[in-house]
């Protein structure tokens, strides 16, 4: 036996466990025999792993389905949705921080919003800690972890490298929350988090898609080949300060005509449908090379649907088609996320499910 | 034993063989012990596989390195570069078709160019067949396969779905060449082929990069996470007919201001350095959202270096930086490919190496 044998067996066990949970999350309750067929594992291995998951309280036996009463009915097992709770935080709105307690299947059990009142820097960190504390008090279940969608650039360890809106630079948000509460913490950029939310709880399906998260600012997350693109310096998706209108308005970043000067909720609220269509045209012009280059299937606009659906969405769609080859965009779809503003909270829960249980 | 046992063993054997060849291609001659260490396979398995590869003539024993004459010297094995030849075709130039015979390490053994003289449709297919025939006559070695970089959109089976410059629609180029010559044929879009050439024989390293192939027209290939992005309809990289200058010149496609109306070798040849800088600015404006979104490390301009290096490259670099956040582009590099115009031929050989031997 090679020295790594034990390690590989542990690794394989974790992998198989995640495979089974993935199946249960995506398909709902199934029998042990179904799990064996679906995962390619032996019945013995499946029974062993199911036993472990039942012992951990993550899944439960659900009895037999009514329609199989002829012959010996199989016992179904399913996710014990309420076995663990997840605390999800969305720190991206300009005026407040929002958090939810969710069960393992994403159902919201509690919701808390704290007004930001201009806090930034260390004060904003303390506000996030208070929000998490309040949510943890709202549940009596074991908490699987805290998931956070944060504005700015976030590295793989959960350190916010740069978030101008909160005046955060190298803020170890994951470390701070973990030290405070002793549970696993997963932090990612809000737009990337939104992508996970849309992928798991939205309508993205399995194809490549680009999600624009439109809130106080605008961020993007891109899924290619089922994988979230991270970028060379963990800064993929930073599209808000790409200049799209050099003769336009000054931006908070000190330059002129950034995408955020036209595409941000406060700016959009000031506009009528004709002006929303103009924003859609600017966005379509900026994205046409991206759509052409990636031959993207879906562009998802995630944010307030009353602003995004309609004139703006239609103008993006039309402009992208006008500016690209038909073969690139014949199947192209622009749509809004059914999760609306809650897309980041949904994704923050997925961060935890994925990080702790290996499912997404 | 599960019914798939035999198949899996075959599969594993092919995989291990490819692993070893990959190592030999990238590292040069090594000992069997080195191969075992590098691949994690046992010495017995390595010796067995090496024996098979020697029998097939793909690798040879090279004796021992001079510096290890103390103790029993290990015998090195290496790729038998001349054991097989590869025929590579580049059909993307406007005025001719170019082909080479290359050995397994990419050294060019013969080169043939046939003038196109306006041929298109079936006549252009016949010209490609003639080119391949002439190259096959130029080698006395077993030919591992024919690799082709073709303009237009090419599907996974080597069918050219749409190549306006050659008036090709649904042309089964791989099938035609295979029926004619009885050797394996691999066809891909010229820009995607160029990406493979740059990745294997150029300077791209392991990071994400976007390659623009600038010839008669302009195409792009994008590597994210080590994988070439294919796109929803196999049309990724089709950036040449993205409109970048709505008030500009009419394009052959019937619209106005496509990227190809400014960024194509015939257009660039007419320009002085100041005008080349303007082209660089237009390109930088179109690509800034792409660079920001993907947080790309490298943009590689592949084509005539006398036109691309200098004013044009500098203007792209400057414009992309002006239009994106510093954090996105602080490590960003724009450079020209060291392979110049031969980047597609290099990539066409990689198509065959990858398809037939599993190495890239």
TrEMBL record, chains A, B:
GO molecular function: DNA binding; kinase activity
GO biological process, one term: regulation of DNA-templated transcription
A matching Pfam family: Crp
Domain HTH crp-type: 29-59
Database matches in InterPro entries: ATPase_NBD, HTH_CRP, ROK, ROK_cs, WH-like_DNA-bd_sf, WH_DNA-bd_sf
Keywords: Kinase, Transferase
Keyword Membrane: no
SUPFAM superfamilies: Actin-like ATPase domain, Winged helix' DNA-binding domain
Recorded family membership: Belongs to the ROK (NagC/XylR) family.
PANTHER family: BIFUNCTIONAL UDP-N-ACETYLGLUCOSAMINE 2-EPIMERASE_N-ACETYLMANNOSAMINE KINASE, ROK (REPRESSOR, ORF, KINASE) FAMILY
Protein name: Sugar kinase
Organism encoding this protein: Pseudofrankia asymbiotica
Higher taxonomy: Bacteria, Bacillati, Actinomycetota, Actinomycetes, Frankiales
């Amino acid at each position: 036996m090679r020295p790594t044998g034990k390690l590989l067996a542990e690794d394989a066990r974790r992998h198989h466990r995640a495979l089974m949970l993935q199946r249960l999350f995506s398909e709902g309750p199934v029998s042990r025999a179904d799990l064996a067929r679906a995962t390619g594992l032996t019945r013995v291995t499946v029974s062993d792993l199911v036993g472990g998951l039942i012992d951990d309280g993550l899944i439960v036996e659900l009895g037999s389905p009514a329609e199989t009463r002829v012959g010996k009915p199989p016992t179904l097992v399913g996710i014990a949705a309420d076995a663990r709770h997840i605390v999800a935080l969305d720190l991206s709105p300009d005026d407040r921080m929002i958090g939810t307690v969710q069960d393992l299947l994403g159902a919201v059990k509690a919701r808390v919003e704290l007004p930001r009142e201009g806090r930034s820097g260390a004060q904003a960190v303390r506000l996030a800690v208070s929000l998490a504390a309040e949510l943890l008090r709202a549940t009596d279940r074991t908490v699987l972890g805290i998931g956070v969608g944060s504005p700015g650039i976030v590295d793989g360890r959960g350190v916010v490298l740069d978030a101008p809106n909160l005046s955060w630079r190298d803020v170890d948000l994951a470390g701070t929350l973990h030290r405070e509460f002793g549970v696993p913490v997963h932090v990612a950029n809000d737009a990337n988090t939104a992508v996970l939310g849309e992928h798991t709880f939205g309508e993205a399906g399995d194809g490549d898609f680009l999600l624009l998260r439109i809130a106080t600012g605008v961020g993007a997350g891109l899924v290619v080949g089922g994988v979230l693109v991270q970028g060379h310096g963990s800064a993929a998706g930073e599209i808000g300060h790409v200049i799209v209108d050099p003769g336009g308005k000054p931006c908070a970043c000190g330059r002129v005509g950034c995408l955020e000067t036209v595409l941000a909720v406060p700016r959009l609220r000031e506009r009528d449908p004709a002006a929303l269509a103009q924003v859609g045209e600017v966005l379509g012009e900026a994205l046409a090379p991206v759509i052409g280059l990636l031959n993207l299937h879906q562009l998802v606009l995630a944010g307030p649907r009353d602003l995004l659906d309609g004139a703006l969405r239609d103008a993006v769609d039309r402009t992208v088609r006008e500016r690209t080859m038909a073969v690139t965009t014949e199947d192209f779809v622009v749509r809004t996320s059914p999760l609306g503003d809650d897309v980041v909270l949904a994704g923050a829960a997925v961060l935890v499910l994925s990080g702790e249980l290996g499912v997404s």
